[in-house]
Amino acid sequence: MADTLDTRPDTEGPDFSGFGCPTPLRSGERVVMGHGGGGVLSAELVRDVFAPAFGGAHLAQLGDSAVLELGGARIAFSTDTFVVRPLFFPGGSIGDLAVNGTVNDLAMSGAVPAYLACGFVLEEGVELETVARVADSLGAAARRAGVEVVTGDTKVVESGHGDGLYVNTSGIGLIAPGVDIRPQRARPGDVVMVSGPIGVHGVAVMSVREGLEFGVEIVSDCAPLGDLVRSLIAAVPDVHVLRDPTRGGLAAALNEIAASAGVGVTVDERAVPVPAEVANACAILGLDPWYVANEGKLVAFVPAEHADAALAALRSHPLGAQAAVIGTCTDQHPGMVVARTGLGGTRVVDLPLGEQLPRIC
User: Fold this and answer.
1) What confidence score (pLDDT) does residue 26 get?
2) pLDDT, greater one: 7 or 181
3) CDD domains, alphabetically (predicted)?
4) Whole-number Å distance between alpha carbons of 314 and 318
């Protein structure tokens, strides 16, 4: 039969409802994986669904933790849910993430973490030995971070509905008088630095999830950052902004800060520390390390006159030994992050739409 042109009108259009994509369609009536990625879809979900429902000035801050006045004290309060797959990976487990993720959120407000609450959602059929291993790792991580788990809850869901187990942790910590660290304080002229190499955690989890070998074991950077933050604040009391670049990676963290403060951020692409093994793995997988989650690194914005002291303070701590200055704040291109490339050009670093590597924190 000869080829013919189908001229029938397509009144309904193609059906994309079954597609799964790292850059999902933004229009639709159902949740997709990208809504949990810390990028544009996550921001729209908070803006359009949760914020109108909950309201309140404290929620509008949209920091890593809420800063509250209570009984004459300033406290930071944060909650996070962890759905990482697999439950155990080189350098940590979901138990370590549950503690360090919440402790670090508190620390990014300048708080000294104190107490945690912990909730487990267990899937019917998961081995009790697995639950015990996660609980042991969570308890050990809490002791290393100097916090105490003081309350919790357990629920069980039917087989096939829980992926083994999920963990939620909430935490509180005290903020010392005079400490004011929040995204809105970024100012033109601020120096931007990171506490060490990026992209390690996400690649470590992906390597074991997919059974990939890159010639060298990549170990997660999962760690509590409270002590590192205390060292930084002791050297530079007027730190403007701290952020741990977890979901959405460094790119998402910088974009969120730029948008919150209404400033531009200019980054020297060559100054961003990316380990060779991470760069190689990302090249193989078609990923950008700037968008890969970290669990033991922070981004700091400090006044230019205190940049040397801040960098020295970070490098004096084991968790900040490879800290680096990566850029500056500017009054140009407000709300936008721009990278200077190695070829002398510039490129816009967008907020990610969805998530390159789902289920890694």
Assistant:
1) 52
2) 181
3) HypE
4) 8
Note the pLDDT of residue 14.
40
Closest of 241, 238, 229 to residue 184, by C-alpha:
241
Residues 293, 246 contacting (CB under 8 angstroms): yes
> Which residue from 35, 49, 64, 108 is spatially nearest to 359, judged by alpha carbons?
35
pTM of the model: 0.84
pLDDT at 285: 84
* Mean pLDDT over each residue of the chain, to the nearest integer: 87
CB-based contact 110:181 (threshold 8 Å): yes
pLDDT of residue 72: 87
Q: Which sign, positive or negative, has the C-alpha torsion 134, 145, 118, 55?
A: negative
pLDDT digits (tens, 9 = 90+) for 105-147: 999 999 999 999 999 999 999 999 999 999 999 999 999 999 9
Q: How far apart are CA 249 and CA 253, in angstroms?
A: 6
Three-state DSSP class for residue 227 = helix
pLDDT of 356 reads 65
Running DSSP on this structure, what letter comes out for residue 296? S
Question: Cα(298)–Cα(319) distance, rounded to whole angstroms?
Answer: 10
Bridge-based pairing state of the strands 73-82 and 165-175: antiparallel
The matching CATH number, chosen from 3.20.20.60, 3.30.1330.10, 3.40.640.10, 3.90.1150.10, for 59-175 is 3.30.1330.10
Question: Whose CA is closest to 253, among 95, 105, 130?
Answer: 105
What pLDDT does residue 36 have?
Answer: 67
Confidence of residue 5 (pLDDT cuts 50, 70, 90): very low
Domains 59-175 and 183-348 fall in the same CATH topology: no
- What is the fold, at CATH topology level, of the domain defined by 183-348? Phosphoribosyl-aminoimidazole Synthetase; Chain A, domain 2 (3.90.650)
Residue 219 in contact with residue 204, Cβ under 8 Å? yes
Domain residues of the chain, as ranges? 59-175, 183-348
